[in-house]
Amino acid sequence: MHCIAFHFILKQTKKLIIIMSYSSFIFLILFILPSIHATIPSGTIQRTTKQQILATVAPTSGQPSPFLSSPSGKYTAYLVRHETAPGAGGFGNDFCYIQVQETSSGQSLWESECAPASNENTCALVFDDNGLEVFDGSNPIWDTGAESADDNPLELLEMVDEGDMRIRDQIGELAWKASDDPRANQGCGEPGSPGLAPAMPPFAVPIGGGNNLPFGQQQQQQQPQLQQGQQNSGAAFNQESGGLNGQPLVDNTAFFSGSCKSVELKVIVVVMFSFLGLGFGF
């Protein structure tokens, strides 16, 4: 009797070990292997935090900050900051925006809207739930409005060799592309540009436009030209992590791209295969 019980327990133990091994194999396929990220394609940035800072430009910098280039290096995307030109009207604020330009010539291919920013705050470009978003300090001033059709998290920012910038969700579906909102050569901060008064007629000279400025004022230096790319092709440039005036961007937690539904489905599959193993006597 003891011998029969011992053999029964041994048989059941073997079954349990086989089922556990089988379940572990399924778990490995469904959970572990997908977490091993494939190589990110050239000209692509993967979002890893909820608010991922791609570039910043300080008030006194004046130099555009590159953050992405196409795989061939033909096109480069910058975060650009311009002061309001003398005599252009407005409130004397700066303008921060994204510009995609031909790397060799500096020719503007696409621009985001001229977004007014305080001349005391750092401008930042962030990859977040709104797609690309420009901040004036901690205040959002423009975003792409990118949205996944199935409400999947936005995960990839890419630049193709045609110069089009695109955002995709976690399953690779297109959520936004720059070519759907064409805009270039706005001249942000110049007379007549968006947000400022119309350009002056040829016979009108703004105060301060000549060489002899009143009250001993010094003539402002011309805005430096955009740097032409000497960067590697398909580069994702150094991504900033701080340096913003005012309150910092608060949500820098790790970005989890998997949805609860997908996790629940995987658990159900593991349990289902485990019961199948029991049913077939493994």
TrEMBL record:
Region (Disordered) location: 178-243
Keywords per UniProt: Membrane, Transmembrane, Transmembrane helix
Low complexity bias: start-end ranges: 212-231
Biased composition annotated in UniProt, kind: Polar residues: 232-242
Keyword Secreted attributed: no
Transmembrane segments: 16-36
Keyword Metal-binding recorded: no
Protein's recorded name: Uncharacterized protein LOC120276295
